[in-house]
Design brief:
By secondary structure, this protein is mainly alpha-helical. The protein is 60% helix and 5% strand. The chain has one domain.
Length: 83
């Protein structure tokens, strides 16, 4: 893989992590939860093969997305039960 190709892959990973962080923040907010330091772990977003970790006590993108889905499902069930 060329340097440009690695950089593109790194950029995609960081964008995916940013998107996951934003979705998680929104889902947490909908559930009434705020994590003030929710963000990207800067050290994990650099280098040729970045991991792009979400910093909330650290988890990977897949875990953040799974937590987002669970929170949204839980919030939907709770709202449905209140009707």
């Amino acid at each position: 893989m060329t340097t440009a190709g690695r950089q593109q892959t790194a950029d995609v990973k960081v964008r995916d992590a940013e998107r996951a962080r934003d979705e998680l923040r929104d889902a947490l907010r909908a559930a009434g939860v705020t994590l003030p330091s929710l963000g990207l772990d800067a050290a994990s977003c650099v280098g040729s093969f970045p991991l792009a970790l979400i910093d909330l006590g650290r988890c990977n993108v897949a875990t953040a997305l799974a937590l987002t889905v669970a929170l949204r499902s839980s919030t939907g069930e709770r709202k449905g039960a209140e009707r």
